[in-house]
Amino acid sequence: MIKVLQVIGSLNIGGAENMIVSWHEGINPNEFQFDYIVFNEENSDYKNRVEKINGRIFNLPSPTRNPFKFYRMLKEIQKQYHYDILHAHTLFSNGIILKMAKHLGFKKRISHSHSGKNRVKENAVTVAYGKWMQALIQQEADVYLACSESAGNFLYGEAFFKQYGTLIENAILAEAFTYKAELAQALKKQYHLEDSIVIGMVARFHEVKNHTFMIEVLKSLVQIHPKYTLVLAGDGPLLHEIQAKVKDNHLEKHVLFLGMVNNVKELLNVFDVVVMPSFHEGFPLALLEAQANGVATMISNAITQEVKLADNLMHLPLEVDAWVSAIVNMQQSKRINHILNTKYDLKTSILKLEEIYRR
Question: Mind listing the pLDDT tens digit for each residue in 82-129?
């Protein structure tokens, strides 16, 4: 049995978090065991999923804010459970964690990048910290993984990642997202969207996701025709601000707030177009899901070109007129699953990960 300790920071709903738990759900349980470290998180959204597949969750302090306590607790965990591998998913904090893991005798130390840009605003301090952590990661890890080339280049440096890095593409259980016409009709009726052109955005209400931009796009669209409805699924710190903006622009009849949802694969059948106007992303699982469903998809040109697997996914500049024109002129075509049996299918991704763990 190969025992892997996943250091992830949080097991709340998110793309990387869902990806890692999905690996756990699909990996060979007779050969691999996953447990998790989160930071200052008493209750996690994915707690039930993890416990259902016999995973433990250890709640530790942040390794950057309280490194000595984190080290003592990690030492006790390793002493009790004897993990073979530490797999770190905490971006630049991977450096500190991997250095501790090396000192504690973990046989293999894996760094994994899930983002092509730091969420922290850059200044002299954060840039210096990033360079220090990058050097530490290069020194202390044995394996350098990333979900995309942009994510690998960002965390490790382009030349280093090209020579030593490995891509583990984000992946989904592709067959589960295949378009279902009958379900689409039923859900459109349930949400009173039968006569609407439905624009779907599934994202946390956070500045980087750029909901404000989509409100401006919608404002222009409904001046052309009142049939457009923007469906927003998710929660987050900017929810009330976006709700207020919708009200200020008198768009209440054209926006549906669903809150946090756990039925994204069903919701995709309702959408006529999926939008992602983010300022930056790594390699979003949501775009794999959309392309597995076959729905037309429009995303900002700040997102890596690597995500484009279907002809009906468009990269657009963050200019309102460009998005309005693209949505008004989009052509509906047969919805085909573009992910099935590719490297972005979860089954393929898990086989690749198992090989890395066995080395």
Answer: 999 999 999 999 999 999 999 999 999 999 999 877 655 677 777 888
Annotated domain spans of the chain:
2-171+343-358, 174-328
Residue 160 has φ and ψ, to the nearest 5°, of -65, -45
Q: How far apart are CA 151 and CA 325, in angstroms?
A: 31
Distance CA 118, CA 155 (A): 9
**CA distance to 275, 277, 278, per residue, from 213 (Å):** 11, 7, 9
Q: Could you confirm whether domain 2-171+343-358 is CATH 3.40.50.2000? A: yes
Give the C-alpha separation, 308 to 128, whole Å. 33
Above pLDDT 90, what percent of the chain? 77
Q: Which amino acid is at 193?
A: L
Quote the crossing angle between the two packed helices 94-103 and 124-140, to the nearest 10°.
Answer: 30
With bands split at pLDDT 50, 70 and 90, how would you rate the model's confidence at 331?
A: confident
Average confidence (pLDDT) over 294-318: 93
Place of tokens 């207020």: 244
**Residue 161: predicted pLDDT:** 97
CB neighbour burial string for 189-215, b if at least 16 within 10 angstroms, e if fewer: eebebeebbbbbbbbbbbeebbbebbb
CB 285 within 8 A of CB 117: no
Cα 10 off chain centre by = 13
Between 67-71, 208-212, 220-224, 260-264, the lowest mean confidence (pLDDT) is in: 260-264
Measured between alpha carbons, how far is 20 from 4 in angstroms, rounded to an integer? 12
Provide the pLDDT for residue 166. 97
Does residue 33 contact residue 3 with C-beta atoms inside 8 Å? Answer: yes
pLDDT at 184: 96
- φ, ψ of residue 85 to 5 degrees: the values are -130, 135
CB 141 within 8 A of CB 109: yes
Which residue did the predictor score with more confidence, 308 or 14? 308
Give SS3 for 314: strand
Enter the CATH code of domain 174-328.
3.40.50.2000
